[in-house]
Amino acid sequence: MQLLKERILKDGTIKPGNILKVDSFLNHQMDIDLINEIGKEFKARFSDCPITKILTIEASGIGIACIVAQYFHVPVVFAKKAQSLNLDGEMYRTKVQSYTHKKVYDVILSKKFLTSDDHVLLIDDFLANGCALQGLIEIVRESGATLEGAGIVIEKGFQEGGQRIREMGIRLESLAIIDSMSDNSLTFRD
Amino acid sequence: MQLLKERILKDGTIKPGNILKVDSFLNHQMDIDLINEIGKEFKARFSDCPITKILTIEASGIGIACIVAQYFHVPVVFAKKAQSLNLDGEMYRTKVQSYTHKKVYDVILSKKFLTSDDHVLLIDDFLANGCALQGLIEIVRESGATLEGAGIVIEKGFQEGGQRIREMGIRLESLAIIDSMSDNSLTFRD
User: Fold this and answer.
1) pTM of the model
2) In chain A, which residue's Cα lies nearest the Cα of B35?
């Protein structure tokens, strides 16, 4: 997605440890006009899929998923990262290792909101080692829902997550795939 | 907001400890059509304010804020609840006590994304004791931005947060104010 790549080049910054910061437009401050264009792009790429629900994980996926969902006219459901007093009833549960926060956390989703009748599109802002996305995939499998695919805004193509998920036979659409990053430059996959 | 009150009565459930669960449409599964109506309502109520930025707090405020922001044509910025490796530079910091999670957590916001030029609308899903909202208000004050007001989807009017914030002279618009809750019923403020 050209508009996104241009924005990453213009406003993204690269930090030590292969960290790409896009916090001025994607995951701290959010440029809603850009995210609407992202929503249109995901709709175009998954227009052949009978999506009934968009699934994401807190926190930074939620806003993007909500904007994207407008183009599919379906609800969003987001997996939560810790037990909350306000959650009860039966839960899907899995564990996810966070690359950013260097810890393992529990991820839960109420069984009420994902069933075998659903056709699910996963949405998230980043894909690196793929742990968060694999957690969501496990939840979808446990629910018996049909996984139509995953839409990622930025994939770090030099980490193994994307390849591993494609090898599982899952349709993965990343709007910008970064093949290499150094101190002052990055290269997108064509 | 009549549509919202009807939805709370239809799909909300009341749990011990004065917990109102609206997780089927507002903060676990999210009904994007309803949240768009919420966005229109906030725009109508704050149409006289020169809003430049919408500020919320992760996690459940983010999706609502993003949908609402479309009606104001401004960016969203969300305060984060813990230190992340991907945040650097100067931060606004405050502490917030969570009623739901029974703990105190640090809340941070990059100084880049809120300045004295901004006119801020705070958005959140719930207002009960007001701790989260007061944390956001502190951040706005520290930034020197103009606080135009706060838009809350559901206020628990029988807890003290709303009164305390109104007494601070802050314009607070809650789309549904619950004055009392018992096992099987709830009463809205007119």
Assistant:
1) 0.95
2) A66
